[in-house]
Fold this sequence. Notes:
Layout: H1 2-31, H2 39-49, H3 53-61, H4 66-71, H5 75-112, H6 117-149, H7 176-183, H8 188-193, H9 197-214, H10 219-240, H11 243-258, H12 261-265, H13 267-292, H14 295-302, H15 304-313, H16 316-330, H17 334-347, H18 350-366, H19 373-389, H20 396-404, H21 416-419, H22 422-447, H23 461-465
Helix pairs in contact: 1-2, 1-3, 1-5, 1-11, 5-9, 5-10, 5-11, 5-16, 5-17, 6-13, 6-17, 6-18, 6-19, 6-22, 13-18, 13-22, 15-16, 15-22, 16-17, 16-22, 17-22, 18-20, 18-22, 19-20
Amino acid sequence: MVLGVTVGAFVYGDSNTRLASATQRIAAFDTDRSGGLNETEFNASRTETDITFAQADRNKNGEATSAEIEKAPTKTQTELAGYFKILSDIFLRLIKMIVAPLVLTTLTVGIAHLGGGAAVGRIGARTMGWFITASLVSLGLGLVLVNLFKPGVNFPVTLETAVADVSSVATSNFSLAEFITHVFPTSIVDAMAKNEILQIVVISLFLGIALQSLGKKTERVTEIMEQVAFLMLKVTGYVMAAAPLAVFGALAYTVSLQGLGVIADYGRLVGTFFLALFILWALLIAVGFLILGPRVFKLIWDVRAPGLLAFATASSEAAYPRLLEQLERHGVANRVVSFVLPLGYSFNLDGSMMYCTFAVMFIAQAMGLTLTWDQQLGMLLLLMVTSKGIAGVPRASLVVISATLPAMGMKPEWIALVLAVDAFMDMGRTATNVIGNSIACAVIAKWEGLLSDPKKDQPAVEAVLGSGESGSARPANH
């Protein structure tokens, strides 16, 4: 992680040093054409530093702002960053390859072993109750803190100088009818191919309940599903071996293009947001302590690896397979974690919910708009609904924000104000999502009496992914 930041900072700093040097040399060429640089030398300098004459001339005449000079990535930066990004892109593609079959098999088997339709309904009700409460707390806490610290007031960077590629952010108008319809798949193949987690959950519910109702007639099918789950967990182990390279590539790519200096410009926003995440972590852990006791600290320690992976890659999907393993190793029953975790990835994104509140309020403050408390409460309820409608969409938080801004009387393109530091803030909110879902799984398992002592009842996944042991074993039917 540190190596990735260091290399990225070196690339970013070296490119901007050469850009400033080229601007000075061009100024010298214009000042003294006879004794300074000749035109051939100037053109070579321009090519070497990957800047156009027009851009350099704007720098010389003072027409370009300092933000544009320092932040606009050069061609060299973009190319080098692209090579770093290959590492994280390959890793994320491999993760996407295993997530759908892993969710389908583990959730189907988990439901098949729950013991009856009543158990499914009870766990589902408790799970959704926890998710809705956690979402409201996350949104409310974010709303209070952003009003308290006001990170957008007197913001020094205007919309025109914000570095952003708004074209990459999808916009959408939330439709409850479309959302409900989209939850139900038209094809199991299509849902698996597109990694539509909610649709895969629906498919798994039908398959799991059907296997449960048929009992001994489909025991062989259930065993095959268990074996496929073990197979995917083994593949997960191979993919996770490349995680350090992915972390290096992701961080080097981000820092190479944006540098660490961009955090200084947005210091109040980034600092306030991470303080809010820290408070949210403390609140989640405190509630976990009330239910789980001191064991909650062991839980946080056990999921540190998937949490750090989520932070470095800013991808919840990247952390899913390892998080599934670690929760089982902690003692959460397979049937619970296989049911709760996939739902959590769609309905329990605590960090992302808080970020949506922060971003919308920050934009309003930066643009000099004042939202009444009635408007802010309306925004909170709107975010509560729209955030569920785009679960699983890439850069989902930005899609939610861009869809919410018009409802608050703001332009969707104003989202450009937060894009410059979105990559850094995405790391924090993604890691928070992992922590929130980990605590949720453990709490639901505790309520169901399915949270075992890992020292006495190690999950069967340990036999598959443990210290090189061979053979196979069926999942423990906790």
